[in-house]
Amino acid sequence: TRYPLLINITGDDDLKTGANGGRVQNSQGWDIVFKTSGCVNYDHEIEKYDGANGDLVAWVQIPTLSSSTDTEIYMYYGATVLCDTSNPEAVWDARFRAVYHLNDDFNDSTQYNHDGTNNGATFTASKIGNGALFDPSDGYDYIDLGTWDMSTDDITLQAWVWPNDFNQGDPRIVTKCSTSGAGTQDHVYMLSLYDGDNGENRMRLRVKTGSDDLLNTTELRGTSPNGYLPTAQTWYFLASTYENDNSPQISIYRDEGLDAGTANHSLGGDLRQNSWPVWIGASPYGSNNSNYSWDGIIDEVRILSSDLSQDWLATEYRNHNDPGNFYSITSCFEQTTEVTQEWVEEVQ
């Protein structure tokens, strides 16, 4: 339920603007909308639109996405509009506490507006649109997401990552960490790489609960083989969850929901709330230490106050990794309204 569907289309002549021989009327794609077969709008967000090439990256929230029957969606375009028709905050419901597409900006697409501040990262072609490139060779690159908490007893951290190599000592993907240390107890949460059988190619998760900054962070390292990234310079979908139930657990996953490791959390309960900052691409501690810096590309970072299921994560991977096989697109047709004399007389 409430699934944000990725629509990723490239080089479509119909999706070019009218000035480029296509049918879209607005240079920013504002006339592109998504509807049910009954003409009810779906909430959507346009991450990227290129009217010269006919490229579109959009996210559409599907209220109920069936695993057994096809869901039919209609995309309309070509009307004259004067304002943006998208509604990103409705695409990413209250479970999504932060969503960063990193497509030429560092903004949060959710209602919480946890926009990031860039320190050294640059934009580059990525898994979905553009993403953020972190290069520790020219300094300490990171994205500062500010200081904020989640009052929740569940969490999901996820991102698409492309490691340039496995030569960094302790690279962080996303973390809420103290500025005075980088040990296990200095983290409320962290998704990173560390150790491994080929440099730092092993997934790692940390989650802190309770009311003490010095206690109750549980660490989980990936188990073989799924908890290891086999090769560098390859895209991976990494996710981790904390679920507080009768037996609190932390888990990590790679790619198509592959189980990369599960462990009991030592305490359970709500996440620790404090004033530690949240960063993408490095640790808030040791600002001159490139050892903690990511080397490569990060895309689609998400932080949720919910533990997404293994099936959900597998669905996301299939949708993001190969959208052309996740859905099929029929040919474009023109919708016209025939105005007859009888209709005019009826209106009059």
Describe the secondary-structure layout.
Blueprint: E1 3-9, E2 33-35, E3 41-42, E4 44-50, E5 55-62, E6 74-76, H1 88-91, E7 96-100, E8 117-119, E9 122-125, E10 130-134, E11 142-144, E12 154-163, E13 172-177, E14 187-193, E15 203-208, E16 217-221, E17 236-243, E18 249-254, E19 258-264, E20 278-280, E21 296-304, H2 310-321, H3 323-326, H4 341-347
Antiparallel strand pairs: 1-5, 2-3, 2-6, 4-5, 7-21, 8-11, 9-10, 10-21, 11-20, 12-17, 12-21, 13-14, 13-20, 14-15, 15-16, 17-18, 18-19
- % residues in beta strands: 25-35%
How much helicity do the residues have?
Answer: under 10%
Profile the largest sheet: 8 strands, antiparallel
Spatial gap, N to C terminus: 45 Å
Strand count:
21
What ranges have pLDDT less than 50 throughout 5 or more consecutive residues?
none
Element-level helix/strand string: EEEEEEHEEEEEEEEEEEEEEEHHH
Radius of gyration: 22 Å
DSSP helical segment count: 4
Mean pLDDT: 94
Task: Give the structural class.
Answer: mainly beta
Shape: globular
What does this structure look like?
The protein has helices at 88-91, 310-321, 323-326, 341-347, and strands at 3-9, 33-35, 41-42, 44-50, 55-62, 74-76, 96-100, 117-119, 122-125, 130-134, 142-144, 154-163, 172-177, 187-193, 203-208, 217-221, 236-243, 249-254, 258-264, 278-280, 296-304. By secondary structure, it is mainly beta. Strands 7, 9, 10, 12, 17, 18, 19 and 21 form an eight-stranded antiparallel beta sheet that branches. The protein has a seven-stranded antiparallel beta sheet with strand order 8-11-20-13-14-15-16, with no helix packed on it. A three-stranded antiparallel beta sheet has the order 1-5-4. A hairpin with a 3-residue loop joins strand 18 and strand 19 (258-264). It is globular, with a radius of gyration of 22 Å. The N and C termini lie far apart (45 Å). The model has no long low-confidence stretch (mean pLDDT 94).
